[in-house]
Amino acid sequence: MLEKAGLYTKVVGYTLYVIWAELRLALGAAIIRRQASWFGSLGAEKRTRNIVIVGASFAGYRVAQIVAKALPPRSPYRVVVIEPNSHFQFTWVLPRFCVVQGHEHKAFIPYGGNMKGAIEGSYRWVKDKVANIDRTAVKLQDSGEVIPYEFLVIATGAGVKDGLPSRVNATDKLEGMKLLQGMQKGVESANTVVVVGGGAAGVEVATDAKALYPEKHIILVHSRPAVMHRFGRGLQKAAREGLERLGVELILEDRVVDEDASSKVVTLKSGRKISYDFYMNCAGQRPLSDVIANLSPNSISSTGHIKVKPTLQIDDDSLPNVYTCGDVADTKTPNPNSRSGTRQATVVAENIVLAAAGKKPRHIYKNQWVDGIIKLTLGLDRSVTHLGDGISELLFSSKETDEALMSAMCWSRMGEKPFEDKYMDDHSAEVEADSSKVPV
């Protein structure tokens, strides 16, 4: 009992710390805006020193937001964001939207909302992909443009080869929506669905599919002794009970060694062969660190993460102006998510603001167990929230009433009104042609 009381105390302390950090950043941004209104600011053409951010998911977008709003009005620096996706992709809802129809547009949030309030000329947004990085510049893939940098932030995150249900692997919203709709139709038309991987994505997509289509045979294959094996025993037990309650067939301590897509048969290490109609791979996530392979190959760890110093500068003394954060960074975060990525981004942003002012980076990143809080859906109408510090854990079961989960909240936090998107208006003819109108 005392241990759980201690957990509550830690959560309260962490929450107060987060609120204070947000207030401090907001106050700083307000002061910069006031200074700009009083004394004017440098235009984009005079801001010739670039702070280049590669990737704009939770971590990269956060760095851009903080730095652009913290640069003094007459600073020669500007933020340059390089991001290939047309929209921010809210990956947490992807497993749900691979099963439930009519919400897929909600996973793609317009960029720009969180940059509101940044003074004119403080940032530039480039929709492109990085082809190469050297010690002074970034070369873009599509345009061929070479962008010099004074500071560089690698926030490329993690990816999966097979894409959905874990990642979209498409840069355009409409294309991503079509991929989600393809998954929905695949599940809908199948009698037997095989899901590989017993992490959050695998558990959620399996329970959603079985809850929506109870007559279907849903099989979840996981190589470990328990699903959600990176978390506490309480969550492992809750996840297993959720799967069993719905009737998902669970195969543990076995793995797929061959998938024959033509005959639709998977072979397990145990020798068992399973015929299926639809196959969903939720395993194989890896950090996307290849972008610095030429710049600093020794900074890439054996796991593919980018080695870092406590200040989140990369672990290469010859490159003190290069930082990294989010899923690609080797921070030893037990369960990386948007909270840990956002905290890392704040450290990176504040260190860059200091360095741009000629000061030594002094902010350091330390893992906080509270960052590992996870909300796991177990079917369409229920979920469990887990938090633990490695000694004790707390579980909160709850009912879910919104099929789109926390999509609206994420849109709001990204500075956008749910679910208004000019892109959808501009592409309405294509949406109608594909017979894929979505509800507003």
UniProtKB/TrEMBL annotation:
Organism listed in the record: Trichoderma harzianum CBS 226.95
GO molecular function, one term: electron-transferring-flavoprotein dehydrogenase activity
Pfam families xrefs: Pyr_redox_2
Matches recorded under SUPFAM superfamilies: FAD/NAD(P)-binding domain
Ranges for domain FAD/NAD(P)-binding: 50-336
GO CC annotation, single: cytoplasm
TM annotation in the entry: none
The protein's name: FAD/NAD(P)-binding domain-containing protein
